[in-house]
Amino acid sequence: MRKLLLVGVAGLFGAVIAAGQQVSIVDVYIAKVKPEKRGDFDAISKKIADANRKHKGDVWTTSQVEYGEQNTLYFTSGRSNYAAIDDGSKAFQSAIKESYGAAAMEKLMRDSDSCLISSRGEIRRVRADLSSNMTSDPAALFKLIGQSRFVRTTMVRVRPGKTLNFEEQIRMVKGAGERENPSRVTLVSQSSVGQTGALFYLTNWGDSMAALDPPNVPRLLGESGYQRFSSMSAENTLGVETIITRYLPELSNPPAEIVAADPSFWTPKPPAPSKPKPPAN
Asked: CB–CB of 220/157 below 8 Å?
């Protein structure tokens, strides 16, 4: 859980960053929670998110796996560079200490760690050159994430020495996909730290499961194009996994630009006050 001090998912990932800056890396913490400890973990994560909201701490989105390995959560932050990770960590720790004190912060981290089966930290490099229908305006990405409920991420592990060949495959689908559906955004990122070998992530957002329905690649590429694409896949890739995650606003602290896209969703409602007990007879 200590890594959460640095990165705040997810989602699998929602790329979020301070206004006016460009996302160049995605900082991700992946927590696999013991099923019997899920309630405890969520309660601790809510306290952490609440402290950062109140005291202008770090920003992140949190999502949980709906299709894939259950009780797995992604805490995700977009960053402009590695130095921004330091800034996020300082803001996070300051917010926790201001809310609960240094000793209580340490206890929160220990209690959170005790809920985990395992955890993993990753840094992924955004590949704007391979992404589809991406705009240079960060506000458009904020709005897309803010209005989404689900994230679909396809992870492709590439054979050693075949990275450039695989990038050619992505460009084949990118060109055809942009022509067919200019509104479907696909963010491509590449593993930089925390993974073995070359791993690419292709991410889409949607306000419903229906919005995540993938394109028909054989139709996009045509018969001969798809045959070439399939042959290249056999030569270039070691494996493919696709997961769908769902945003958890109560465990998130996204920047104001994302909240503004759908305030009723991203602003957790305070718990209802408990009813007073009736006087004893």
From this structure: no
Predicted pLDDT at 276: 67
SS3 271: coil
114: Cβ–Cβ under 8 A, 6 or more apart, which residues? 37
Residue 7, pLDDT score = 36
Tell me, what amino acid is at 246?
R
- For 205, the enclosing helix (H) or strand (E) is strand 198-206
Q: Which domains does the chain have, with CATH numbers?
A: 4-262 (3.30.70.100)
Length of the chain: 281
The sign of the dihedral angle between the CA atoms of 223, 205, 246, 13 is: positive
pLDDT in tens, 5-32: 333 333 333 444 444 456 789 999 999 9
Nearest-angstrom CA–CA distance, 24 and 259: 21
